[in-house]
Amino acid sequence: MYAASLAHLRALCLALPHTTQTGARDDPIFSVKGQTFATGHRVGERESVWFKATEDTRQRLLSRHGQRFFTPRYLDKHGWIGAWLDGSCDWSEIDKLLRDSYAMTAPASTNQDADAATTRS
Description:
This protein is α+β, with helices and mostly antiparallel strands. It has helices at residues 2-14, 55-64, 91-105, 108-120, and strands at 19-24, 27-32, 35-43, 46-52, 69-70, 80-84. The protein contains 4 helices and 6 strands; from the N terminus they run αββββαββαα. The longest helix is centred in the last third of the chain and has 15 residues, at 91-105.
Protein backbone atom coordinates (compact mmCIF):
# COMPACT_ATOMS: atom_id res chain seq x y z
CA MET A 1 0.00 0.00 0.00
CA TYR A 2 2.77 2.43 0.86
CA ALA A 3 4.25 2.23 -2.62
CA ALA A 4 0.94 3.34 -4.20
CA SER A 5 0.44 6.16 -1.69
CA LEU A 6 4.03 7.28 -2.13
CA ALA A 7 3.71 7.26 -5.92
CA HIS A 8 0.56 9.38 -5.70
CA LEU A 9 2.23 11.78 -3.26
CA ARG A 10 5.27 12.07 -5.55
CA ALA A 11 3.07 12.80 -8.55
CA LEU A 12 1.24 15.60 -6.74
CA CYS A 13 4.36 17.23 -5.32
CA LEU A 14 6.61 16.90 -8.36
CA ALA A 15 3.92 18.44 -10.58
CA LEU A 16 4.58 21.77 -8.86
CA PRO A 17 7.21 24.00 -10.51
CA HIS A 18 10.81 23.76 -9.29
CA THR A 19 10.02 20.95 -6.83
CA THR A 20 12.77 18.50 -5.99
CA GLN A 21 12.74 15.29 -3.99
CA THR A 22 15.47 14.28 -1.57
CA GLY A 23 15.62 12.01 1.45
CA ALA A 24 15.28 8.27 1.76
CA ARG A 25 13.23 6.34 -0.78
CA ASP A 26 10.42 5.63 1.71
CA ASP A 27 10.69 8.98 3.53
CA PRO A 28 10.79 11.59 0.77
CA ILE A 29 11.31 15.29 1.34
CA PHE A 30 9.73 17.64 -1.20
CA SER A 31 11.26 21.10 -1.54
CA VAL A 32 10.96 24.18 -3.67
CA LYS A 33 14.10 26.25 -4.17
CA GLY A 34 15.70 24.43 -1.22
CA GLN A 35 12.80 24.97 1.22
CA THR A 36 10.80 21.95 2.41
CA PHE A 37 7.02 22.05 1.96
CA ALA A 38 6.08 18.36 2.43
CA THR A 39 7.54 15.10 3.70
CA GLY A 40 6.35 11.51 3.52
CA HIS A 41 6.56 9.33 6.63
CA ARG A 42 5.58 5.96 8.03
CA VAL A 43 4.21 6.33 11.54
CA GLY A 44 3.99 2.87 13.00
CA GLU A 45 2.22 0.88 10.31
CA ARG A 46 0.50 3.91 8.73
CA GLU A 47 1.56 6.09 5.81
CA SER A 48 1.38 9.86 6.15
CA VAL A 49 2.37 13.17 4.64
CA TRP A 50 3.40 16.16 6.74
CA PHE A 51 3.07 19.68 5.32
CA LYS A 52 2.79 23.34 6.27
CA ALA A 53 -0.63 24.88 6.90
CA THR A 54 -2.03 28.06 8.39
CA GLU A 55 -3.19 27.99 11.99
CA ASP A 56 -6.83 28.30 10.84
CA THR A 57 -6.45 25.38 8.45
CA ARG A 58 -4.76 23.21 11.09
CA GLN A 59 -7.49 23.93 13.63
CA ARG A 60 -10.26 23.26 11.08
CA LEU A 61 -8.76 19.97 9.92
CA LEU A 62 -8.05 18.69 13.41
CA SER A 63 -11.47 19.63 14.78
CA ARG A 64 -13.54 18.39 11.82
CA HIS A 65 -11.42 15.52 10.56
CA GLY A 66 -9.32 14.41 13.52
CA GLN A 67 -9.34 10.81 12.34
CA ARG A 68 -7.63 11.80 9.05
CA PHE A 69 -5.26 14.52 10.32
CA PHE A 70 -2.83 14.77 13.22
CA THR A 71 -0.20 17.00 14.75
CA PRO A 72 3.32 15.81 13.87
CA ARG A 73 5.58 15.57 16.88
CA TYR A 74 7.98 18.51 17.18
CA LEU A 75 6.71 20.27 14.03
CA ASP A 76 3.33 21.55 15.19
CA LYS A 77 4.88 24.69 16.67
CA HIS A 78 6.37 25.40 13.23
CA GLY A 79 3.00 25.31 11.47
CA TRP A 80 2.95 21.70 10.20
CA ILE A 81 0.14 19.15 10.15
CA GLY A 82 0.04 15.49 9.12
CA ALA A 83 -2.50 13.56 7.03
CA TRP A 84 -2.94 9.80 6.95
CA LEU A 85 -2.62 8.34 3.45
CA ASP A 86 -4.81 5.29 3.93
CA GLY A 87 -8.46 4.34 3.32
CA SER A 88 -9.96 7.66 4.43
CA CYS A 89 -7.56 9.77 2.36
CA ASP A 90 -9.17 12.34 0.05
CA TRP A 91 -6.49 12.87 -2.61
CA SER A 92 -8.14 15.99 -4.05
CA GLU A 93 -8.05 17.57 -0.59
CA ILE A 94 -4.43 16.47 -0.10
CA ASP A 95 -3.57 18.03 -3.47
CA LYS A 96 -5.05 21.38 -2.42
CA LEU A 97 -3.33 21.28 0.97
CA LEU A 98 0.02 20.45 -0.66
CA ARG A 99 -0.43 23.34 -3.10
CA ASP A 100 -1.17 25.65 -0.16
CA SER A 101 1.94 24.42 1.65
CA TYR A 102 3.97 24.97 -1.52
CA ALA A 103 2.57 28.52 -1.83
CA MET A 104 3.51 29.26 1.79
CA THR A 105 7.06 28.06 1.15
CA ALA A 106 8.01 29.07 -2.39
CA PRO A 107 9.48 32.45 -3.32
CA ALA A 108 6.96 34.84 -4.92
CA SER A 109 8.31 34.33 -8.46
CA THR A 110 7.91 30.57 -8.10
CA ASN A 111 4.33 30.98 -6.87
CA GLN A 112 3.54 32.86 -10.07
CA ASP A 113 4.84 29.86 -12.04
CA ALA A 114 2.59 27.56 -9.96
CA ASP A 115 -0.45 29.81 -10.53
CA ALA A 116 0.19 29.70 -14.28
CA ALA A 117 0.51 25.90 -14.20
CA THR A 118 -2.79 25.60 -12.28
CA THR A 119 -4.55 27.87 -14.78
CA ARG A 120 -3.35 25.69 -17.69
CA SER A 121 -4.53 22.45 -15.98
